[in-house]
Amino acid sequence: MPSSPPPLVLASASPRRQALLAQLGIAFLVDPADVDESAKPGESPRTYVTRLATEKAQAVSARHPGSLVLGADTTVALDGKVFGKPKDAEQAQAMLSQLAGRTHLVLTAVATAGTRSAVQAVETHVTFAAVTPQALAWYASSGEPLDKAGGYALQGLGGFLVERISGSPSNVIGLPLWETLALLQAGGVRSPWGSEP
Prior knowledge:
The chain is built from 6 helices and 7 strands. The protein has helices at about 15-25, 45-60, 90-100, 135-140, 170-175, 175-185, and strands at about 10, 30, 70-80, 80-85, 105-115, 120-130, 160-165. The two termini are about 20 Å apart.
């Protein structure tokens, strides 16, 4: 009797990524990567997320020989500047003030390593409403922005900030589902509807 293939390994501690992947009915293990997430001087937002997603997948792959490992990284960018995760409410409010009333870019890169290496970056344009400073201060103090790129959560309370989205909503949450499924199928993972890769 043939042995079953090793499970997919998700190299992320993000509960949002885990929830999105679980919704698809794909079995996976969670083994978060520990990599330096500092941007390099002159690094574009796309290069930044692509590098980090690849580094995360490769770092965890070394611990799971024979498995397919999925890494991902999301960032918010405005005028070519990367907006990471705010460390406190004051920093969150400063970020959100720059995004208010403007359209920014959300970039997520997904990468596989192990049995197959590939990477893809996905872009979504998000337009914030012209929210008042009082509303931004209230949201910043809610605690929700603190572990979110750009300081907001589309799927949470932060959804009130968003006036319009052009592109993948799941990309903004942290895992572009269609592109991720395509990478997983190419790596040998069966789709949720049972078709062969």
